[in-house]
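Quick start: load a record and inspect it. Here is DUF38 domain-containing protein:
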Amino acid sequence: MEPKPMLFCDTKTVLTYMEASCRFNLALKIPSIRKAEKAAPLIINRLELFDNHFVVNETEYKMKVYRQCHGELDNDVGENGARINVDESIQPGDITLGDLRRAYLKRWPVPKRPIKSLQHGCPPQKMYIRLYVSGSKYQFPHTNMKMYQLMKRLLTIFFGNRSGEWTVKNMSLQNNVLRWPVDGRRPIVRNVNIGNYSQLKMNIDSIIDSSVPLNNLQMRVPKYSHDRILDHPLLLHADHVTISNYPPESFLSDLFSIQAHTVIIEDLTSTNSVDFESLIFVFMEKTRPIGVRYKIFTRYKTNLELIRHPEVFERSINCIKLAMGSDAMVVFQFSRIHFDTWLNIEACPRNV
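Running the structure step on this input writes:
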């Protein structure tokens, strides 16, 4: 009895329960299932994007430039061996995420110098792009494809033109340029780390389905940043916002204006310079929505009984309550969690 080919709906069902990288590899090798693979629901636990590699769950796709006389290089280079400028590699759909390193290079640009050939007259055009996937190596002529083009092609093959719903549980953007596919359905993202918070000014929300709120948006605020956070859609649709470092004092006003349900500052590196009284005064400058919470890792406590504020109506060593209008109050309270000290701030009704 001859085996019958699987129906389209059956193929979708099987693919739905298959690990993402395994699905991608099958679709590359079996063209007949590609349409079903794009239509089947997809769940990715971890997606990390860098300039020369990316990670899907536990599978890493890493690219290098290979020159016969110099070995492997991590950076993309042109035919003459000079490093390719990021701005020269922008393709349709790409999003420039610009970080501090790129800003530094723009202010103090490094001149392009071709990599000198070694002895024996090694021709500079003898170069290849190498792709490493889970220990396997693939090699392509450098004249046909640059590293950034291969990155774009792979991300488009995997994530472009998807018609079925797909979800990324944890996404991390650590690249200078996001080589995102031009066409296709946007993913539902549960948790995302965007790196530098200034990347919010880029068009990041265009790659994420904002109809479903984020569980957590994580970012870092540079110590000497002068940028301001605006009412970005990602901030408005995030249940939690996590700041991975303690921001400069000039940034606190913006920080306390974030409309997320809970804001967490999880690393306080400049503990000795924190002025708790100043922090409380900045928070009380504006009326905050009832229900907002801030959780700040402080390493140590101060005596809150010593805080002098005109709206104080109840205080103790570890807790102080301030009136916010006639019906609400703000509670500042220290707590200990696993031997760590946190300052919790919550706006709540006065009758609580």
